[in-house]
Design a protein that fits this description.
3 helices, mainly beta
């Protein structure tokens, strides 16, 4: 209703000040339960890169702001969903087949947790007791084991085989009032049943990210100094692992630096602010080479198999694809012009075939696909500025989440003003180029996906507390369906065995709503946290 009133006011303003006709398409109907809330545009707005006007003063644009959304705490194992209930010192376990809810006592204030890959087990950082709880679950019972970690850890990474975990303090994730942990040490957790252990290892200054080899044998710890390579099976408590430098200049201290490592641990690829170059580091040999480019890279991405690196060069309107060799030699590259397209960021699909090119700069309403085999660029005209891009795992569809315009672009068209001020997202078929704008009454805070049926699920908590909802998006038809929620939604997770999504909500005694992925039928459980507090 708020949207209808706003649109009516804007249309009235347009009729009073301009004789132009009203748009023929209807506005977003924000009422929960409505079907296909798609907004004004569903047309196939395809053009070549040269056809899209992006402006010629790209060097004067503000910096890109890439968001890599981390949608938080709940984790799904083969048979369960685990949710931290920090205030109750419990982990909530939901059976994915029966939807039975169980509360399991762990340490003090569990907040960060990760499922052990392929197992019905979860590792949680107990933020108030400086340990991790290793919880192994079955249908008949639960086993909890505690292992010490360094004080004040707030980050956790798990190797893909489930043999090791790395726990550390990440200054970038800490709040203003949070205690500070170690800036140059981390805890390595051995997870093999019967051989569980915690080791303390010193690494480079300020660990920022941890990436593992597929076999779980190595962890590449990206730090402000470079990359500390941990050979996990041979680590001993108290080991010192110096960082491999990622710059030829040992005194280099850039304001901003992005370091990515290939899955096999062979290469680190580096971009940094104020340097019109990309750096390649062969980690086993410590060999470093720099390749000069036409402008400062604004983004860096690796193809999922690590065979190539994609560098986005917004200010020179280019993208460069570097093929990473098996030995320590300079990578070869292909550089493609983007014409008038403004693109400073990229997101590569899981199959490694396509990159979505876009910019976060306010007022620029464009995106494109880049075929990584042919380097062909296909641009699309959008209706709003992109905030971030989400590509469901294994999908050829992208969700381009938008942000309202901070300053209106001078248009007198009331429909354009309405769209510019609204929240929403664009559904983008990467194969056909079809786009559809969907307007939402509030900002989408989290996205989950289900494979069968192929759907995306967006949380829409209303800041006014009036109309909380979850929006289901059919990724085949691009139709949408809202389900009203009684409390502000926090997280949403897919439970494929039960054929439902679980929506946790902010509620004094705990609340979860289960929604049938095929039927849309909702069932709510309230009071599980309250029950845990009654002793």
């Amino acid at each position: 209703m708020r949207y209808l009133l706003l649109l009516a006011a804007l249309l009235a303003y347009g009729c009073a000040s301009d004789s132009a006709a009203s748009p023929s398409t209807g506005p977003y109907n924000g009422s929960p339960g409505s079907s296909d809330n798609g907004g004004y545009y569903g047309a196939k707005d395809i053009a070549t890169a040269a056809d899209v006007s992006g402006g010629s003063q790209k060097a004067d644009l503000p910096p890109e702001k890439e968001k890599d959304p981390d949608f938080g705490a709940p984790e799904s194992s083969p048979n369960f969903v685990f949710i931290p209930a920090a205030d109750a010192d419990r982990i909530v376990k939901i059976n994915g087949a029966t939807l039975k809810v169980t509360l399991i006592e762990v340490g003090d204030r569990p907040r960060v947790l990760k499922v052990v890959p392929g197992q019905d087990a979860v590792l949680a950082i107990d933020s108030g007791s400086d340990d991790v709880a290793l919880l192994r679950s079955t249908d008949t019972g639960d086993e909890v084991q505690f292992l010490p970690v360094l004080p004040h850890c707030n980050a956790l990474s798990m190797d893909p085989t489930g043999q090791f975990a790395v726990v550390w303090f990440d200054l970038a994730r800490a709040g203003a009032q949070d205690p500070v942990g170690s800036l140059q040490a981390l805890s390595v957790i051995q997870l093999a049943k019967g051989k569980e252990a915690s080791l303390t290892v010193s690494v480079g200054y300020r660990p920022q990210a941890v990436q593992f080899t597929p076999d779980g044998q190595k962890a590449m710890v990206v730090t402000a100094d470079g990359v500390s390579v941990l050979v996990l099976p041979s680590l001993k408590d108290g080991d010192l692992v110096a960082a491999v430098p990622v710059s030829k200049n040992p005194l280099d201290k850039p304001l901003d630096r992005e370091v990515l490592t290939t899955p096999d641990g062979a290469w680190a690829v580096v971009r940094q602010s104020e340097k019109s170059a990309v750096t390649f580091v062969n980690l086993p040999s410590h060999w470093i080479t720099e390749v000069t480019l036409d402008s400062v890279p604004t983004d860096l991405d690796l193809v999922p198999d690590g065979s190539a690196a994609l560098v986005t060069l917004r200010d020179s309107a280019q993208v460069a694809l570097f093929q990473l060799p098996a030995t320590a030699v300079t990578p070869t590259s292909q550089i493609v012009s983007l014409g008038d397209l403004t693109a400073g960021l990229a997101h590569i699909t899981a199959d490694g075939k396509t990159a979505v090119l876009y910019t976060s700069v306010a007022g620029v309403e464009q995106a494109a696909t880049l075929d990584l085999a042919t380097m062909a660029v296909h641009a699309v005209l959008l209706r709003k500025t992109v905030d971030y891009v989400f590509i469901p795992p294994g999908s050829r569809k992208a969700i381009l989440v938008h942000k309202p315009a901070a300053v209106l672009g001078g248009t007198s068209d009331p429909a354009e003003v309405f769209v510019d001020q609204a929240q929403g997202y664009t559904l983008f078929d990467l194969d056909s180029g079809f786009t559809k704008l969907v307007l939402t009454p509030v900002k989408a805070t989290e996205i989950a996906t289900s494979a069968t049926p192929s759907k995306a699920w967006l949380l829409l908590p209303d800041p006014a507390g009036l109309a909380h909802a979850i929006q289901a998006v059919d990724l085949t038809s691009f139709l949408t369906q809202d389900t009203a929620l009684g409390s502000p939604p926090e997280h949403v997770r897919d439970l494929p065995k039960a054929g439902v999504v679980a929506v946790t909500q902010t509620h004094p005694s705990g609340r979860i709503t289960f929604i049938g992925e095929k039927t849309g039928e909702a069932k709510t459980v309230t009071g599980y946290e309250l029950n845990a507090l009654v002793k």
